[in-house]
Amino acid sequence: MNIKYYNKKLNLYIIINSDLLNSIKSNVKDYYPKEVGGVFVGYYNKNEAIITNFIIPNKIENSFCFFKRNVDNINKELKKIFIEENNIYIGEWHSHPNGDNMYSNIDFNTIKKIANDEDVKIENPLLLIVGFNNSDYFLRFYVYKNEELLEYEQV
Ligand SMILES: [Zn+2]
Questions:
Q1: Residues with Cβ within 5 Å of ion ligand 1?
Q2: Which of 13, 56, 100, 115 yields a CA-CA distance of 20 to 30 A from 149?
Q3: Could you tell me the CATH number of the domain that includes residue 53?
Q4: pTM above 0.70, yes or no
């Protein structure tokens, strides 16, 4: 089943399969109380961002800017995915153990850096933050646009 998120201001959608979201949630739970995160791959179709998969780095660090990090498996897998499926890097996700789904200053600066990076072919990266308190999940999607992180609502 596909789950849809919508940003009214920009008229943009995110589409993600519920199995994929559940898989992200189980990673968040498995790593709890440590943080975990990864990158999203997918493609755009008009005003829809379709998330087809995610990649977790083989080396988890405390702060999260996976793309262009020294995380070999991410860059290798992104290359392979591009060649085989024509899908691209479209954003990032990470957990906030015992936290909410508001982005931090570090989160904002990280995503801004990604958006302004000439090597990244995407100007409006997505960000998913998953707050988790060992029983409930608090998910929020954002898109970076015009120096802002704008929220999506599930529709
Ligand atoms: Zn964060």
A1: 104, 107
A2: 56
A3: 3.40.140.10
A4: yes
